[in-house]
Amino acid sequence: MEIDPVKGFILGFLIILVGIFIIVFSAVYSAVKSGGKAEYGGAVVIGPIPIIFGSSERAVKIAVIGAIILMALAIGLIVFSYILSRSIVSKIP
């Protein structure tokens, strides 16, 4: 089953928009629920350099753990795709 590139682009764009909406909604909900004393934290990974930020030590720890898990998943996917591509290429006559 092949996906049309335009449909794939639109699907990916919609998934990103839904993710942004969920993040914004959860942040607003958390702030309203806690009376304006919400914690926030995040991680931006540019190449091998992580930039971690947060409003409290707890939020930073959660961001670090999340960044480590996501980086491990990314490395795992890269290794998996490499192994899979080697097995496919070796079967080509």
Secondary-structure map:
Blueprint: H1 5-33, E1 41-46, E2 49-54, H2 57-90
Antiparallel strand pairs: 1-2
Stretches with pLDDT under 50, minimum 5 residues: none
Q: What is the straight-line distance between the termini?
A: 24 Å
Q: How would the global form be characterised?
A: flat
Strand order of the largest sheet: 1-2
- Radius of gyration, whole Å: 19 Å
The profile of the biggest β sheet is: 2 strands, antiparallel
Please give the number of β-strands: 2
Order of helices and strands: HEEH
The helix tally amounts to 2
Percent in strands: 5-15%
How many structural domains does the protein architecture include?
2
Look at the helices and sheets and give the structural class: alpha+beta
Percent helix, as a range, is: 55-70%
Overview of the structural elements:
The protein has 93 residues and is α+β, with helices and mostly antiparallel strands. It has two domains: 1-37; 39-93. Helix content is 68%, strand content 13%. The chain has two helices and two strands, in the order αββα. The protein has helices at residues 5-33, 57-90, and strands spanning 41-46, 49-54. A two-stranded antiparallel ribbon has the order 1-2. The radius of gyration is 19 Å and the shape is flat.
Which properties best describe this structure?
flat, alpha+beta, 93 residues, 2 helices, two-stranded antiparallel ribbon, 2 strands
Give a brief outline of the structure:
The chain is an alpha+beta fold and 93 residues long. It has two helices and two strands; from the N terminus they run H-E-E-H.
